[in-house]
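Task: fold both queries, return C-alpha cells.
Query 1:
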Amino acid sequence: MALLYFSYYLPKNLSNPLHLQMSLENSLSSDADVTFSILAMNNWYNFSLMLCQEEWNITDFLFLTQQSSKFHLGSIINITANLTSTSDLLNYLQLYLESIKDTTSTMVMFGCDMEKTRRIFEITTQFGVMPPELHWIIGDSQNVEELRTEGLPLGLIAHGKTTQSVFEHYVQDAMELVARAVAAATMIQPELALIPSTMNLATAGGESTQNYKVFLANTTFDGLSGHIKVKGSSIVSSENNFFIWNLQHDPVGNPMWTRLGSWQEGKIIMDYGIWPEQAQRHKNHMQHPTRLHLRVVTLIEHPFVFTRDVDDEGFCPAGQLCLDPLTNDSAVLDSLFETLQGGNDTVPIELKKCCYGYCIDLLEKLAEDMNFDFDLYIVGDGKYGAWKNGHWTGLVGDLLAGTAHMAVTSFSINTARSQVIDFTSPFFSTSLGILVRTRDTAAPIGAFMWPLHWTMWLGIFVALHITAIFLTLYEWKSPFGMTPKGRNRNKVFSFSSALNVCYAILFGRTAAIKPPKCWTGRFLMNLWAIFCLFCLSTYTANLAAVMVGEKIYEELSGIHDPKLHHPSQGFRFGTVRESSAEDYVRQSFPEMHEYMRRYNVPATPDGVAYLKHDPEKLDAFIMDKALLDYEVSIDADCKLLTVGKPFAIEGYGIGLPPNSPLTSNISELISQYKSHGFMDVLHDKWYKVVPCGKRSFAVTETLQMGIKHFSGLFVMLCIGFGLSILTTIGEHIVYRLFLPRIKKKSRMKYWLHTSQRLHRALNSSFIEDKFLHALKHNYKNYFEMKYVVSGYLLMDLIHLKDNRNKKRKPDRIDKGGRNELIKPSSFMILHTSNKSTPILKTGFAVF
C-alpha cells in the first residue's frame, strides 16, 4: 500500500518511491500560472511588480515571463520597509509610480494581504499619485469571502476559491488516486493485480514498482480539493479551480466583485470570451468602471423586437444597428462584427437592420446602468430553441455554443431551457392563449328584433294594451270625455281609438288620430309617449350594431376544450415550432401535439397570416398571450379575437450562459425597474394601441349596411301584405255572416264604447227603416232637403204642415227612449214616371 504524507511545507526527499506527499496549501506555481495567463490574454506585456513581504517567492512567475520575449519587467517595488509610516510610503510610491507611468501598463502585487492592499490604494488615491491608466492585479490567491470593496480601485483583478478545501477532502482525493491507479493497472495488465498475502511492492522486484508508478503518474481527475495529478516521483498536486474576479459597479452604482472566468486544468475559461477594456478617466481624473463588450442575440417578435431597413448610408436614425446574418456560425459573426467595427465597413447592406422595440429599450437601459457595450444580431434559424437531433437550436444553441453572451427577446422561461442555460428574473409575465378569427354573417330575418330582448318586446305590447284600456276607461268615466254623455260631442273615443293613439305614438305614425279629451287621458297619453321615447332610443342605439350581422368564431373554452383534444371535421390548429408553447403541448398533451405538428408554423406572424387568409389555413393558433394581444390590437380588420381561459402561466427572461455571474446582477436590476415603474413605462409605450372596435377608420365601413341586413324588414312587409288580405276576407266574413245574426237579436247591439264603425254597422238598417216608415205615415208631400257635408254631415229638413198644421224638424229619431244623431251618408230623390210620388233613398250613419 502506498503511504501519503500531508504537509503545509515544501516537499522533502523520500527514499521509498511509493511514499507520496500532498501539499495542503495553494501552490505558488498555480498563482504564477494564473497571473501569467491573465497578462498574456490581455496583451499586458509591460508590467512591474510590487512586493509587500521581503522574502516572497516570485521565482515561478519570473521564470514564466522570462520564457517569452514579449514580456518586459519594468521595476520591482518592495514596500516592506515603508509600510509602517504613511509619509514614507507616500513618498516611496510617488517616486516609483511617477517613474514607471510611461513604461508600465500593469502592476502585479505579491505578498500583500487585503489590509495592506487597501492601505496602499487609499493613500495613492487620496493624494492623487496613482496613474489613472494603470491596471492592477493581485497575484496571490484570495479568499473570495474575505474580499472587500472599500478603498479598492475599480478594475482591480483578483483570483481565488469560493470555498476552502478541508482536510477530509485531501484524504478522500488521495485514496481515490490510489484506487484509480490500481483499477487502471488491473484492467490493462491483470497479472499486476496485487494480492496482499502474496506480494508487497516495497519488497518486490523493481519492475512491478516501476509499473505501478507509471499508472500513478498517468492518473488525473477532478477531486474535492481540486485537479489531482502526480508531479515528479512523489508529489501529489491538487490544483485548485480558481475563479477570476473583477471589481466593477453593480446595477445601482456600488462597487461589486464580478466573476469574469475560471482557472481549470491549467487554462483560463472565460465566461464571455471577453475581458474588461482599459479603464478610462472621469473629468475629475477618477477611474471609470470597466466596460464589458457583449454579443447579444435576439429574435424578431412584435412588439418586443421590430426591424426595419437601414438608411442609404447603412446607419440607423433610430434604434440599434443589428445584423441579420442568417447563420449561427461564430466565425462568420466574428468576421462580420470585426468588419463592422473597423474603419473599412464592407458588410453587405442587406445584412444590416435597425432593431427597436420593448426588449431593445430594456437592453439599452441595462447597458447604460451596468456599463457594458454590445453587438446585436438576429438568431440565424429564427428559433427560440429546442433539443433537436442531439443538440440545441435557436437562441439556446447560440448561448451554449458561446456565439452569444446574452439573449434578449420574448424568451419564455421553461423547465427544459432552465436546465441548460441561466435565466434572469422575469421582466414580463404572460401565459399561453388561443387566437381565432371572427367571421361576419348576414343578419337573419329577425335581426331587427334583436336590439331588445323578447321579454322587452312582450312587455312593450302588454303595456300598450293596458294603457289603451285605461285611456278608454278614463275617457268614458270623465264628464269631459269624447262620449255621448260627455258634453254631447259628435265623436266618440272608443277602445279602437285608444289603440290607434297608442300605436301611433309607439311607432311615430303621423296619421290623424282621435286624441282623448279628458285631462286624465291626456296625462296618461303623454306618460305613454315618454315611455316610448326611452324604449325607441335604446332600440335605435343598438340597431346599427345588430343589423351589421353576427360575428361568429370558434368558441374554445381553453386548452382542455374537446375540439382540441378530439378534433373533427377538419379543425386545424397549431403553434410556433420549437417555441415554449409547443414544448408545453408536447409535455402535457402528447396526442394533441402529434395532431397539430402538421399545422405548426415557423413564426408568430405566419400563424396570424394563416388565420386571416381567405380561405382560412388555420382555425385556431396557440401562442403566448402577450404576443396574441398585440396582434389583436393592431388588426386593422378587427377580425382577430383571443378566446378561452389563459393557461400555462410563464414569464419572459433574459437568457445567459450557464453559471453566468451577470444573472444575479441583471435580475436585481430588473426588480428595481419594476418597483420604480420603468417596466410600466415600456408597457404603455409598446402596448398602448387603440383597441380594435374603437378606431374611427373602422366605423364607417362597419356601419355600411346593404339590403341583406334589412331583409327581415322586407319579409315582414310582405307578410303584412298577406295578412291584410286575410283581414279583408275577415271583414267580409264578419259583415256577411256574424252581423246579420247579431242584428236579429235584441241584445249585444250597443258597441259604441268599443268601435263606432261596428256600432254603426249593427244599427244603421234599423234606424233607416224606422225613418222611412215615419216619412210614409206622417208626411204626405215630399220635402225639400238641403245637406252640407263638412266633417260631420248636417241635414235640415223643411217640412210642410202636417194634418194638424204644425211644423216639425225630424233631426233626431227616438229609439228606445234615446236620441240618436242621424247623419246622412248619401241622399238622393228619385222621381217616378208620373212625377207625383217621390221616393226618398238615403243612408244613415250613427256615431
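Query 1 returned. Query 2:
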Amino acid sequence: MSRHRVRLRLNGARIFPIALGLLLGLSPLRSEGKNTYIRESVSLLSRETIMPEILPAKGKTVEQNQPPEGAQNQALDAANQTVSAIMYAHLAEASDLYTKANPAPKDRHSYLENAVDGALSFAVKDEAQRKEYDHLGTEFLKTAALFSRGKIGVATTLVTYGLDKASPDDTPMQRAADFTLGAVKGQSIKMLFGAVSRNYSFAPTKGVFMGIAARDADIVFDRQTFTDPLKTADRLKAETINPQAWLFDAAVFGAAEGAFSGVNKAMGGRLVQNPLASGMVMGGSFGMVNGGSGEIMRQQAEGKPIDWTKVVQKGMIDGGVGVLGAGAGLKFSSTQAHASVERMLAKPAEKVSNTLERWHIGRTTQAREFVVVDGKEALDKFTARHEGAATLNVREVKRVLGVEKFGDIKSLFVQRFGEGQPGIRPAANAADILATCFPEKLTAAERAKHVFPTAKGTIWLETSEAGRLKLATGKTPWEHRNYNPIGKIVRLDGHMITMNVMGPLEIGSVHDPENPKYKDAWNNYDGELARAKKLSADAVSTDVWWGAVEPKPGQFQFKYYDILSSKIASQGLKWVPILSLHECGGNVGDTANVPIPMWIWSKLQSSIGSSNPDAGKFKSEQGNVSSEYVDFWATKHALPFYRNVFTEFQNHFAGKAPIIAEINVSLGPAGELRYPSYNYHDQGSGWPTRGALQAYSDLARESLKTFAIEKYGSEEAAKQAWGEKYGTAIEPPKNAEDFYASGDYRNTQYGKDFFDWYSKSLQQHGNQVLSSALDVFGSKGSAFAGIDLGAKIPGVHWRMGYWENGNIVFTGRQAELSAGLISTGKEDWNEAGGYGYRPLLSVFKDLQTKSPFSRVVPHFTALELPDGQDGAIAQSLPNSLAKWVGKEANNQGLIIKGENALAGTLYDKAAWERMAHLLKGWGDNPNDGFYNGLTFLRMSDVLASEVARQQFAEILARVRPAPSETAKQAQ
C-alpha cells in the first residue's frame, strides 16, 4: 500500500505566478460558457496547486511499495478528475443559486463607510464633499489595519476589511458572505505583500507585484466572482496585464525607496531606525499605487486617453492617506513591526548585516518550545541563579495548522556556559538535548546534541508559570519575527571569560581624522589591531568623547568613530565603545585633551535657574570647581543631554550592533563612578591623601538640607540630632580637615548622616544615568538590545589599612569616603556587609531587572596591585579590596569584570598572576575566582611586552575551553 506524506507548505515564489496565470485565464482551457469556465479553472487549480502538494516532493526518496511513474500519473489523473468534478459541481450550483437569490443592490454602503460618514457628518455638511472624505477615511482605516502587526494586526485586518465589504442594506446571509469575503481579502493582501517582499528585493519589481496583488484581491474577493465569473476574469485580465499601471507602480516604489535611501544616507543611517518613518514610506507608496492605478483604470474604462496629471494627483492624495494610515497602524501595534518594515524596504543597512554574517558575527535567530514534564524545581533554582545547571525531562511543542503536537519525552540539560568552570559539566553526557550559550565553542559531540547546533553566541531561555520553556538564539529573542513571549527571560551564559584591550585615547585627531598627516598613526593602529587579533584578544575598548562628537548642541559628528570601529571590525575583533561623558586630560595616563562640551554649562545654568555660570559644576572643600564631569546633584538637568548622546549613538551605529561586545557608560571623572576627590583642580588631594570632599555646590547644599529634613522632620530636629558642634546650620563640614582628623566623620551622628547622604547621592546619580542608558539601549525593539552595558567602579585602595598578624586593621578608609564609595553609619565594613560596598553594588543589581535583554556589568579597577603597595605611607590594600568587591558582586548575582590601574604593571609577571587568580575558572575550585573578564590598559603596552604577551596566552589557555577541530572549523 502506497503511503504519501501531505505537505502543507506553500512557496510564495512558485504559487504566486501559477495563481496569477489561473486568475487571468491565460491557460489553453478558455471557454465561452460559464460552467465550462468553472470546470476548467478548477481542473487547472487542482492539477497545478493541490495534487502536487499531496504527492511526494521531487528529489525525495520513493518508498519501495510506491507504484511506478506510469501508474502514479494515472492515479494523479484520476484524482484530478475526482477533485475537479466535486469542486465544479459545488461551485456551479452555488453560482446559479447566488445569482438568482442575491442580486446586488444598486446603491449600497458598507458598515465601514456608514461609520466614517456618520463621524464626518458633524463636521462636513456637503454630501458630495463628504462622500470623497468617506472614501479617504475608509482607506485610512484599511491601511492602518494592514500595517498593524502581531495578533492585533491580524484581528484588525479581518474586522476592518470585513466591515468594508458587508452592508446593512443586504440580507443577513449576504452580510455574512460579504464579511467573510472582505476578511479573506484583507488577510490575503497582507500575506501576498509578505510573499512579494520576501521574494523580490528590486523596488520597481516589488511595486508592480504589490500593485497586482492589491488590484487582483479587490476583484477576486467579491460577490461577482460567484455571480458572473466571466466578467471577473475580464476585469482580472484588464487590470493585471496593464502596462500603464505597471509603469506607474514601478515608478512610485522606485522613487519612494530611492528617496528614502538617499535621506537615510544623508542622516547617517538614522532614518531607517525609526519604525514610523520606515512604515510610513511603505504606506505612502501603497496608497499612491492604489489611488493612481485606480484612476488609470477609471479613465481606461471610460475610453479616455490617460491624463497623467490626474493620475498623479489622485495618487498623491491616496498616498498621503497611506502615510497617515501606516503610521497609525504601526503606532497602534507592537514594536516588532519595525523588523517587518525593514525587510520590506530592503534597506541599505542590510548589506552591512549580510557582510557581518559572512564574518560569522551576524545574527541567526531560531526558537524552540518545550513542556516541562519533570524538573520544574531544578529549573526554578537555575533561573534564580541559585544553581549553574539543571536537568529536566521535556516534550517539544510543535504547531501544525495551529494545532499543538507534543514530541516524545527527552532529557534536557541547561548550563550557564563559562560560569565557574571552563567546560560543560559531566551531567550533560547523559542528556538527550543540551542548551548553553556559545555552541560554537563546544566539541563536535556536544554540538551534535545542542538545541541549536549551528548557532553562535547567545542563547536565551524563557520560562512560564504554566511549566513551559522556550529556547531562542540571537541578540534578543525578538529577532525571531514570530516569537511570542511566555514569561521570564534569562541568558544562558554565565559569561565567557573575556580578554579585552584598551585602545589609545586618540589616534591622530578626533576632530580631523582624515587629515593625511595622520596616515602613519592610523597605519600603526591597523598593525596593532592585527597583532591583538593574533594574540586572541576578544575586543578593543575605545573612548567615544562627548566633547568630540557633539561640539554644538544637537549636532553630532561620528566620522572619527566610523573609521575607528570599521578598522576594529575588519580585523575580526569586537568593539567596546565607552560613551565618555567626562573630560579627557588631567588623569593618570592621559595623553590627550578633550573637554566635555563647553556649551553644557550654560544649558545647565539655564535649566537650574541660577545666576552662577558654574551652577552645574562640582565645588570642593577648597572652594574650587571641577569641569571634568557634571555635578551629580545636577544629573537630572543633564540627563536629557546624556540621553540624546545615547540615542544618537545607537541610531548612527545600529548597523554595527553585531560587532559591539559591550557599551560602557561613563559615570564620573575618568569614566568611573566616583566624585572628583583626587583630581587636579584641588591642591594636595591626589594619591595617597584622603582626597577632598566635593559637596559644596549650591545644589549639593540644597540636597543635604532636604535629606536632613526628610530624615528628622524639620531643620531644628536635625540640628538637635547633630549637636552643638555641627548643629548650628545644615551644611557640609566647615572644616573638612578637622572633621576627618578628629574622627567625627565616624563617631558623630552628623558624620554618619553626612556620608550616608554623600554616598547615596552618588548611587542615585549612577542609577539615573544607567537607567536612561537601559531605556535607550536595552528596550524591546532597540538596535542594541541584548548588548551588555558596563560601568567602572574605581579601586581607591589607599588610606585603607594594613596587615597585622594575619588580620587587616583599618585606619579610616578616608580616600574611599571622599570618593563617595562607602559610608560610616551602617557598621558594614565587614564580610557580611561586603566591606562597605554592598549599597554601591546594589545599584547594579537593582538595574538587572530593568531590561530583560541587556545586563549591567560593573568593572573594577586595580586588580594587578599587591597589598602594601608603596609602603606604610599609602596604607594600601588593592588585592584585598579587589577580592572583597568581586565576592560581594558574586553574592548579589552580578557578573563583574576588572582592569589594571597602571599600564606599567603589564611588564611585571607577578601583576599578571594576581589578575589571573581573581578570574573565574583559573583555580581548581570553581569558587576561587570572582571576575568574568579583564580589560588591559593599554593595547600598545600588551603588545610591546614579551611578558604581557606570554601571560595573556597563558590566561586564555587556562580559563577558556579549547574547541575541538570540528568546532574550530565551524568558526
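Both queries returned. Flag for query 2: The two ends are 47 Å apart (CA to CA).
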